[in-house]
Amino acid sequence: MKVHGKPTRAVWLEPDACAVGIIDQTRLPHAFVTARLETLDEAAHAIRAMRVRGAPLIGATAAYGVWLALRADASDAALTRALAVLGETRPTAVNLHWALEEMRRVLTPLRPVERVEAAKRRAAELCDEDVAINRALGEHGLKLLEAAWEKKGRKGRLEVLTHCNAGWLATVDFGTALSPIYLAHDAGLPVHVWVDETRPRNQGSQLTAWELGQHGVPHTVIADNVGGHLMQHGQVDLCIVGTDRTTAQGDVANKIGTYLKALAAKDNGVPFYVALPSPTIDWRLRDGVREIPIEQRDGSELSDVTGRLASGEVATVRVTPEGSPSANYAFDVTPARLVTALITERGVCPASEAGLRSLFPERAEVRP
């Protein structure tokens, strides 16, 4: 996608081929800042501190993190350590572990002298594969938006609600939930996006709104609790969200608050779609509520907020009373029964084990 009119990915190999470039997403939307990652520890910190975030982007950055580690030491012990360090950065997104397992598979049989170049090559391939997956996912999702526009009689605006950030900032490019929206906008559909602020880190108001604005997509930021009201009054035609982990039976883990949006959508007859690249599917799990680990992050993300003052200065302030503890659950699980359909790079399917396996028959041997 574009930043200030220039095509940009969320992670890239620097021109000198000695580092990985990222957008520091903790600085958005008030400043567009890029950073170089040159070591394993820098890559791990970028993931842990959410300088990069979003399940596909975490996986891509981790793959490059393995390459950075092997540049310093390509021994078996160093490879094992790199995989362990990166694997401990974030617990919920399965793409991280999928990418690391792929790097392990490719690199373990090689001699140390062969590993550095192979790691760089495979990490770059994973990034390109992510872009292709998300583009294909967007094309399948676009058909749903076109059908919704026809159902509406091609009148007014096509109103879409999304939660958190599942755009290109959460992937290498295109995004998941926002990929169909970008393609719809580019095709001339009058799509308008309701953007939940997504407390406590405000990925909606700070990231989704920023990237939609960069691409020229009409949007409106709303408080997290407004979505149900809009649905009651017929102002949402459909919801599209992303997911950090999807079980074999179609339960989805996404940013905290997604479950409540799905409940409101169900109550009001609003289609609720989940867009996911196939590496997000954890075929080993069945019951998402019981089996998906839910990350609990530092309470300061809830008690403190960062914004721009009237002077132009960016500052962080506390909004809760001193001494009041905070519980900061980062994700929740939406059961498959509340999901209208899943949008993947291979097509759209029911949120069920049969639906997923109809699109991915080669996974038939993997049972929870």
How many distinct domains? 2
Percent helix: 25-40%
Shape: globular
Do you know the CATH architecture of the largest domain?
3-Layer(aba) Sandwich
Proportion of residues in β-strands: 15-25%
Distance between the termini: 37 Å
Mean pLDDT: 95
CATH top level of the largest domain is Alpha Beta
| CATH fold naming of the largest domain | Rossmann fold
How many strands, what sense, and barrel or not for the largest sheet?
7 strands, mixed
Provide the spatial order of strands within the biggest beta sheet.
Answer: 8-7-6-9-12-17-18
CATH homologous superfamily designation of the largest domain: Translation initiation factor eif-2b, domain 2
Specify the structural class.
alpha/beta
Uncertain stretches: none
Total count of helical runs of at least 4 residues: 12
Number of strands: 18
- Alpha-carbon Rg, integer: 20 Å
| Helix-strand string | EEEEEHHHHHEHEHEHEEEHEEHHEEEEEH
What does this structure look like?
This protein has 12 helices and 18 strands. Strand 3 and strand 4 (20-23) form a beta hairpin. It folds into 2 domains: 2-129, Four Helix Bundle (Hemerythrin (Met), subunit A); 138-363, 3-Layer(aba) Sandwich (Rossmann fold), CATH 3.40.50. The model has no long low-confidence stretch (mean pLDDT 95). It starts with a strand and ends in a 9-residue tail after the last helix. The protein has 368 residues and is of the alpha/beta class.
Short synopsis of the structure:
By secondary structure, the chain is α/β, with parallel strands linked by helices.
Could you list some keywords that capture this structure?
isomerase, alpha/beta, Four Helix Bundle (Hemerythrin (Met), subunit A), globular, 2 domains, four-stranded mixed sheet, S-methyl-5-thioribose-1-phosphate isomerase activity, 368 residues, Rossmann fold
